[in-house]
């Protein structure tokens, strides 16, 4: 049943009205990698860090200058990224509290199972046009989204993914599914989009080690390696992806207002 639903989702990707990103996970018994190509019309890309507080985990987020987290990972090893392009009827349940931005799940959840519970206990208008793939440091992964007005959950414990590059992704996962950085970047490069909705950056998260591999220039081999714990130790700050190597040598740049946590 799971395989049928995944196949159905892949077919839906093909008919998307809006060009989506490509998101996938690579797993085995020892290492797990969460991989994303970010596609879109915005060239102003950023990565930002928000340390833990009394009631929330420390997080890294990736996205654009609007401060909306397209993807991210927290200090507990939970990673996520969104894929847009669906048109679903997802009537909100007025009895449930609305999410405080799409980053709230990383701020408050440590595992895939906690994330599933979170979305079942909140209403998120993003599900009317997008779905979210999550992975935790155990290697468990899940796709969550709306279908026919109801929240659906697809769980997996293997290498899999979907998105714009799925026609290339699926056969490559059959031969390159080992969770190595070389495999991850090879697949990401092969799944890049061009044109108006070109791939603006790609990233690989290692949920167990907290390592972040950022590729701010998809057309070349520039790789920026960061460590989540080290960056969180610097306090709240952000980098412009295209200037990140220069900004490493400068004082940390304070978060802009649109990157800060939503008020409780």
Short synopsis of the structure:
The chain is an alpha+beta fold. It has seven helices and 14 strands.
Descriptors:
single chain, Penicillin V Acylase, Chain A, six-stranded antiparallel beta sheet, 21% helix
Note down, in words, how this protein is organized.
By secondary structure, the protein is α+β, with helices and mostly antiparallel strands. The chain has a single domain (2-256), classed as Penicillin V Acylase, Chain A, CATH 3.60.60. Helix content is 21%, strand content 31%. It contains seven helices and 14 strands. It has helices spanning 2-14, 104-108, 112-120, 166-175, 181-190, 228-232, 244-247, and strands at residues 22-27, 32-39, 45-50, 59-64, 69-74, 79-84, 130-135, 141-147, 150-156, 160-163, 199-206, 211-215, 224-227, 237-240. The strands form two sheets. An eight-stranded antiparallel beta sheet has the order 9-8-7-6-5-4-3-14, with helices on both faces. The radius of gyration is 17 Å and the shape is globular. It starts with a helix and ends in a 17-residue tail after the last helix. The model is unreliable at 10-18 (pLDDT under 50).
């Amino acid at each position: 049943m799971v395989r049928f639903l995944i196949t159905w989702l892949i077919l839906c990707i093909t008919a998307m009205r809006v060009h989506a990103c490509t998101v996938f996970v690579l797993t085995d018994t020892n290492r797990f990698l969460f991989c994303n190509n970010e596609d879109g019309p915005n060239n102003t890309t950023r990565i930002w860090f928000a340390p833990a507080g009394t009631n929330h985990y420390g997080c890294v987020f990736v996205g654009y200058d609007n401060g909306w987290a397209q993807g991210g990972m927290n200090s507990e090893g939970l990673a996520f990224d969104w894929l847009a392009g669906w048109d679903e009827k997802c009537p909100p349940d007025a009895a449930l509290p609305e999410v405080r931005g799409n980053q709230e799940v990383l701020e408050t959840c440590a595992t895939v199972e906690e994330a599933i519970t979170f979305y079942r206990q909140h209403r998120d208008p993003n599900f009317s046009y997008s779905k979210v793939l999550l992975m935790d440091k155990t290697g468990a992964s899940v796709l969550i989204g709306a279908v026919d007005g109801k929240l659906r959950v697809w769980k997996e414990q293997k290498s899999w993914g979907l998105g714009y590059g799925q026609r290339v992704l699926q056969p490559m996962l059959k031969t390159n599914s080992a969770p190595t950085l070389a495999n991850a970047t090879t697949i990401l490069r092969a799944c890049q989009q061009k044109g108006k909705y070109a791939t603006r950056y790609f990233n690989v998260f290692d949920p167990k080690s907290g390592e972040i591999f950022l590729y701010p220039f998809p057309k070349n081999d520039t790789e920026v390696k960061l460590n989540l714990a080290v960056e969180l130790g610097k306090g709240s700050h952000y980098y412009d992806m295209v200037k990140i190597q220069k900004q490493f040598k400068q004082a940390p740049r304070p978060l802009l207002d649109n990157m800060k946590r939503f008020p409780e």
